[in-house]
Write a structure and sequence with these properties.
Elements lengths: L1 H19 L8 E7 L4 E7 L5 E6 L2 E6 L6 E7 L5 E6 L5 E4 L7
């Protein structure tokens, strides 16, 4: 009986410790696929769950909300004549993606 009580206490502490040290996403992971014929880019990645992700490309700005279960996001935006796209989440470091074949205008 005493051993069972000790095992129960030890098991609950162990499970709480595992929950406390759960991995949380503190960064923005993003990749870009460039479509040269349409001069658009598809940007996908993951970050925190259910936060607003902002994309800047020149004067164009897009905002999406990341998935509430796994933090994934996907957006397609025009990048004609732009050299980079900035992916930004409030409170996290911005991620700068380079457009592979930026046309000069």
């Amino acid at each position: 009986m005493v051993i069972a009580g000790c095992v129960l206490i030890f098991g609950s502490e162990y499970s709480l410790q595992g929950d406390y040290h759960r991995h949380s996403r503190r960064q923005v992971v993003a990749k870009m696929a460039y479509h040269s014929s349409a001069e658009t880019a598809t940007i996908h990645g993951r970050t925190k769950h259910g936060v607003i992700v902002t994309f800047h490309s020149g004067k164009k700005v897009r905002q999406v909300i990341s998935n509430k279960q796994d933090g994934r996001f996907l957006v397609r935006m025009p990048v004609k004549g732009q050299k980079r796209v900035v992916v930004q989440v409030v409170g996290l470091k911005s991620k700068v993606l380079k457009v592979p074949a930026a046309s000069k205008s």
